[in-house]
Amino acid sequence: MITKDLKYPAPVYMEDVPIDVEYWGKYGKTDKIQIRECGEDEVTIRPNFTWYGYDCYQNEGKLFGVAWTGWCSFEGKLRFVLMQNGRIIEQYQPIDIQVKSGQWDGECIQCYVTVSPGMYELVPLFQKKGESTWFMAVDYENGSTQEEWMYEVLPPAPDNLPALRMMQVEGREYNSFLVDEVPDGSPWNLIYTISNKGEGALRGEIQARWEREFKLRSNSYRPSTKYSKGTENDIEWNDVVGQTQIEIPSGTRFWKGKIEILLPKGRLQPRHNGTEYAGGILHLYWREEGSDRWILLRQDADFLFNRNFDGGIYSLLDNTTNYLAISLYSWR
To answer: Do 219 and 321 lie in a common domain?
Structure first.
């Protein structure tokens, strides 16, 4: 539990678990994949877990997600592949899933991305238990398009580009399932832990943004997340809500700091059929000293590939994040 007695900013110890490149470079990547027509096994899809951000770098882990509606019921597996012109370029390990007719569900998978830099289509593949072939979704849903599934894989991130291992409201533990309720119009503190893999000296600024956008390369939501009917207060925003200087000495692997957050007062709760939906996402952006470019502090996903961790993907996600889902006390 984080307490207000700790002093920030300062170096901090965190369990450092580099990706086992030999294992994850092969696991799931060498399976023979044969794709069949879906036939009566109909599933429709739209993007999911997009709030971890759009940026994707070669030779790093990336969390990909999908939401689906089943129009049939089956047990089986889900996996992601990256494709170009209908051809699989890279594939990732499968997970077990259960699809139920008439119901929606979703999953995410940590994927070790090693393909060459370029544009790729992220494609979810489904497999029924007892079968060896895989099939694609029969269609997109809620207005999703192929463009929403396009990702640009960037060259390997330079050593002087930090990432985020953790962020949390001061005084609270982070939980990937929970939405943090906070005040608007009065300040509160966000605690962040920077991951500095290169361990070189870093000087720059961190900017906090509260975002709710529905764009193809948004760091919060894709266009198909937005409902066309039954909504209230369904507007987009991208508010700068905090900023601080950063100076990290050489030799520092993890650095913990604090930034004061002040959310604008008076924003109304976005709702769909009377229930809050697609709430604002809090991210941190980095600007190196001497630069005019702000870059999303991406998730340090290495811990998601920890083979010694006793728990599933959602327990792993409690240990590293680069976003907070934020709701307001005034929305209760």
So the answer is: yes
Take residue 158 and report the two structure tokens written for it.
Answer: 């330079």
The partner residues of 112 in beta bridges, in order of sequence, read: 61
Q: Domain of 244: which CATH number? A: 2.60.40
Residue-number span of the structural domain to which 146 is assigned: 31-154
For the chain, which residues score pLDDT lower than 70?
Answer: 1-6
Domain endpoint, select from 105, 122, 154: 154
- Going by C-alpha positions, the residue among 151, 189, 50, 60 that lies closest to residue 106 is 50
Asked whether residue 302 falls in the same domain as residue 187, the answer is yes
pLDDT in tens, 172-218: 999 999 999 999 999 999 999 999 999 999 999 999 999 999 999 99
Q: What is the pLDDT of residue 6?
A: 58
For residue 302 the two structure tokens come to 């290495």
Per DSSP, helices labelled H in the chain are: 21-24, 313-317
pLDDT in tens, 45-82: 999 999 999 999 999 999 999 999 999 999 999 999 99
Q: Among residues 238, 208, 233, 207, which one has the least CA distance to residue 220?
A: 238
In a domain, 3, yes or no: no
Q: 164 with 301, same domain?
A: yes
Amino acid at 280: G
Strand partners, 286: 206, 295
